[in-house]
Amino acid sequence: MKTSADTHVPLPRWQALPDTDMLARASAFADHLSTRRSVRQFSDKPVPRDIIEACVRAAGTSPSGANHQPWHFACVGSAEKKREIRLAAEAEEREFYAGRAGEEWLDALAPIGTDADKPYMETAPWLICIFAQRRGGVREGEDRKNYYIHESVGIATGLLIAACHEAGLATLVHTPNPMKFLNRICNRPETEKPFLILVAGHPADDAMVPRHALIKKPLEEIAGFL
Ligand code: IYR
Q1: 223 lies in some domain
Q2: How far apart are CA 48 and CA 172, in angstroms?
Q3: Distance between CA atoms of 139 and 56, rounded to whole angstroms?
Q4: What's the CA gap between 103 and 97, in Å, rounded?
Q5: 186, exposed or middle or buried, with CB in 10 Å at 0-12, 13-18, 19+?
Q6: What is the CATH number of the domain that holds 129?
Q7: Which of 57, 80, 134, 200 has the highest Cβ tally under 10 A?
Q8: How far is the CA of 175 from the centre of ligand 1 (A)?
Q9: Does any ligand 1 atom lie closer than 6 A to the CB of residue 101?
């Protein structure tokens, strides 16, 4: 690996912890994340914009291909835009649930209880529409090829979900298919591909979550040590 004073700086502010602290912190983080639930009933209680900004800043720290940061977060809080997005998403979802999904997919979704009605897209204060950029670069105005776009945007989305949870915000990953309509509604260029919509807000007081979603695979099933 090539490093020089021109291109590199010493790793700043690295915190070395004793193993016992590392385990305690990793375990506490895992326990906290295990209380996250995908929520489909939201309260209309407002969430100040600066909270969303802080969560998106956390997402923006994500690693990405060649550090090109190939993402855009269109944070939709206006009632008119949320309504437009809801109506367009529901139109796609109606076709999905009426047959486009196919029997096997609908069968897999049955325990979650979802259908084509998405009222929460208007009730929740924020719809964070995440776009993946095919071209860009590190600096504003660059037009270079981006790399590992989906991996990068997926990782950033994971950090965004974790940041929202840490802030006390409930979220839902929503992926109407297709969702090309988002480019028009969010004024994003054709070179960007809608990745997903993250619904964010306070849960409704009477929010319910599917039992199905509580089944999490144990460590032995999801990890191997070699
Ligand atoms: N986008 C649809 C369907 C849907 C698909 C999957 I995979 C889910 O885990 C949940 C829903 C909807 O939002 O209803």
Answers
A1: no
A2: 18
A3: 18
A4: 10
A5: buried
A6: 3.40.109.10
A7: 200
A8: 7
A9: no
- Give the C-alpha separation, 199 to 197, whole Å: 6
Computed from CA positions of residues 54, 129, 135, 62, in that sequence, does the dihedral angle turn out positive or negative? positive
Per-residue pLDDT band for 136 (boundaries 50, 70, 90) equals very high
Between the CA of 206 and the centroid of ligand 1 the distance, in Å, is 21
The verdict on whether omega for the bond into residue 178 sits within 30 degrees of 0, i.e. cis, is yes
Question: Cβ distance 170 to 47 under 8 Å?
Answer: no
192 CB within 6 A, ligand 1: no
Residue 38's nearest CA partner among 150, 156, 124, 108 is 124
Is residue 177 predicted with pLDDT exceeding 90? no
Is 153 among the domain residues?
yes
Distance of CA 102 to the CA centre of its chain: 26
What's the token pair of residue 221? 């099933």
Task: Determine, yes or no, domain membership for 15.
Answer: no
Distances (CA, A) of 97 to 17, 44, 101, 102, 119: 50, 27, 6, 8, 16
pLDDT tens digits along 3-26 = 999 999 999 888 899 999 999 999
Q: Which has the closest alpha carbon to 118: 78, 83, 74, 75?
A: 83
In a domain, residue 16? The reply is: no
Give the range of the structural domain holding residue 132, as residue numbers without chain letter.
40-204
Number of domains in the chain: 1
Token representation of residue 177: 């298919």
